[in-house]
Here is the input.
Amino acid sequence: MKKTIALVLLTLATVPLAACEEDGYGGVYSYGPGPYAYDGYYDGYYGPIYDGYWGSDNYFYYRHGAGDRAYIRGGRDHFSRSIPDRGGHNYQPLHGTMNPGQGMHMPHFPHGGGRDHHR
Here is the structure.
């Protein structure tokens, strides 16, 4: 009986670990809810982007294509939430939505995994 209870408790203890994993930089591998809408301005510096999200650290994270499993943090001088001072950049409106996928590397995702405490 004691072995059965211990086995059940050990199994239940690993369930939360399967939901998300911290990557050491405050990010998570998230199964978060979607769709997640994002709006802002982008100057095209990184080339065409597929989708992205505004992180809880106020950086924009993006992917180049649907097959990318990791989001890349863009520089604040290339993405802005509000109309930026042009300062030599040719900013264009950026609008879209994304759906977080299972096992995706999403640092500072504001709604994902429940373990991103950098809000």
Q: What stands out?
A: The helical segments are 2-19. The chain has one domain: 21-107. Strands lie at 27-30, 36-42, 51-54, 60-63, 72-73, 79-80, 92-98, 104-107.
